[in-house]
Amino acid sequence: MQLLSKWMVVGVMVLALAGCAGSSKKATKGAAGGEWAAGAGGAETSPLAEGGGLKGDEWGAVQGTTAGNSGYGSPTDPRAAALQSQVIYFEYDSSVVAPQYMEVVRTHGEYLKKNPNVRANLEGHTDERGSREYNIALGQRRSDAVMNLLIAQGVSASQLSSVSFGEEKSAAYGSGEDTWSKNRRVEVRYAP
Amino acid sequence: MMRVLNWWRVCVVTLLMATSSAFGEPLRIEVTEGVSSALPVAIVPFAGAAQAPGTPVSAIVNADLARSGRFDTLATAEMPQQPSSLEQMNMPAWRTTGVNYAAIGQVIPQGGGSYMIRVVLVDVPRGQQLAAFQVPATADDMRSAAHRVSDLIYEQLLGERGAFNTRIAYVSVPNRPRIGQPAEYLLMVSDADGENGRTVLKSKEPLMSPVWSPDGRQLAYVSFESGRSQIFSQDLGTGKRRLLSSKPGINGAPSWSPDGRQMALALSDGANTHIHLLDLEGGGLRQLTQGAAINTEPTWSPDGSKLAFTSDRGGRPQIYELDVATGQVRRLTYQGNYNARARYSPDGKSIVFISGGSTFRIAVQDLQTGALRVLSQGSEDESPSFAPNGAMIIYASQYGDAGVLSTVSFDGKVRQRVAGSGDIREAAWSPYRPR
């Protein structure tokens, strides 16, 4: 009876696979256009009632994108560009900057103090585990922790901003500690 | 033969992910587990259905009822005949199939692109009509009309309200971001069976936390389109958006009050995050939590008197409940060291949430007894959302490298995967459509 049941399952799988392979995908009415609004992060809406076509003129309150991203991450100074690869990593569920990353923070801080016209955006991230909005808050703690250290080092607060992307912008994909450890981070991104 | 198939009804279906990644791909419902005590029924192909524009009404009804896990639907090939009226039925032949009920019907053109779907539910052992109903349809809303038929059959046979004619909103990331290729985040709305997917928002920056307004006409969500989090509401009929919250720091986790007049949300202040209430008419903002902690993911109880929320005020994330009138807070979860992202059941008696530690699973807790039931089996399950009849929960889980949606019945016995292309996350189940 055990053997029979195994073959029944295999038989059902084969039938199901055959069935799946034969099924057709229905075309959906996705966004018709594909033109991005000008600016760093264009967002386009589509009135549901009209069958999904994009109508860029009917945004109502949307003013188009702000320059909120202000070109962070594309610095003209090659030193700043090089500094961006110096990332601060964190332990699970922690926003404490570990001793081995204090040198990284100091390096960023020295550069910012020497270049008071340069602005930096501190971007906090988490690994994928747990709830997304809690991870937004955890990422914010991380970016704020780095910001506070920089200010304590003598960097002017007006040079700094901090944002959290939680788990939404992974640096590495997959699961397991190898991937997760690469995502628990604060990146320092410089504006020109 | 029917009885044997019933007994061995553990249906293992391999997930076939689409290799192409056109955004707006429909979701496919695939059964991963079934229940042998489901009610045997036959949904007979409706007469005249070929005249209705390309939409197989009875096939949709069959798929709905099968997906709920409460029905064992007879394959068309097993049907002794395909009658469209009671008089045409050969009862002795039908009784050999073992079905308790058969649904027979017709799709009748009324002219001008409208149709009438007429259905008769037959009690097969008794050989008599149990119920009859008709659902008007047009060429454009045939799928919706079919889901209404499913709801009527579900209600007639189970005595519970059906939720097939509902929608889901979800975030889809069709392509994993690669160097030199911009990321793309889509906010989609589809029928609850995954069909008729429409993109309602497209962005190069993350979209999160979609929630429905109580009347089902709007979505609110978090968008990073300006480089940081902001909360928008969007009218699904017109596409018009309204920026609701753009404070410095976090603007997150919106939740519409049941009367539609307030939005609970999370705002940060330095290292702490707090629940606030935004008056949607007057714009006033009221802070509800205090202290050094992360407090986020507020969600309204169905009677509008309480907010459940996630807080790490005790060290790790747990779920608490706030009385909106008095401000009193009590802790709800005590099992496990990570509990977050609660949603109340429509009857207000339970919460569903993410329960974790080393793995993260969907769990339901009875608010009166504290009894806990784990419903899912993945390692990173998240974003649970109740169907408006409380009978099923949709949630996001990992399958291979991508996020997929799954539904599970409230008792945890029936689970189905909802497949699609790309990385799908964060579904929110709509309210009922107005009757």
Q: What does the average pLDDT of chain A come to?
A: 74
Instruction: Indicate the overall shape of chain A.
Output: globular
Please report the total strand number of chain A as a whole number.
5
What distance separates the N and C termini of chain B? 40 Å
Spatial arrangement of strands, main beta sheet of chain B: 1-29-28-27-26
Over all CA atoms, what is the radius of gyration of chain A?
24 Å
Structure description:
The complex is a heterodimer of chains A (192) and B (435). The radius of gyration of chain A is 24 Å and the shape is globular. Chain A has helices spanning 2-22, 78-83, 99-114, 132-153, 177-183; strands at 43-45, 88-89, 120-125, 160-166, 185-190. In chain A, strand 3, helix 4 and strand 4 (160-166) form a beta-alpha-beta unit. In chain A, helix 3 packs across helix 4 (132-153). Chain A has 192 residues and is an alpha+beta fold. Chain A is built from 5 helices and 5 strands. With 435 residues, chain B is mainly beta. Chain B has helices spanning 2-7, 57-67, 91-95, 142-158; strands spanning 28-31, 39-43, 71-73, 101-111, 114-123, 128-138, 167-173, 185-191, 198-203, 207-212, 218-223, 230-235, 241-245, 251-256, 262-269, 272-279, 285-287, 295-300, 306-311, 318-323, 329-331, 338-344, 350-356, 360-366, 372-374, 382-386, 392-399, 402-409, 415-419, 423-429. In chain B, strands 1-29-28-27-26 form a 5-stranded antiparallel beta sheet, with no helix packed on it. Chain B starts with a helix and ends in a 6-residue tail after the last strand. The chains are: A alpha+beta (192), B mainly beta (435). At the A-B interface, helix 1, strand 1, helix 4 and strand 4 of A face strand 8, strand 9, strand 13 and strand 22 of B.
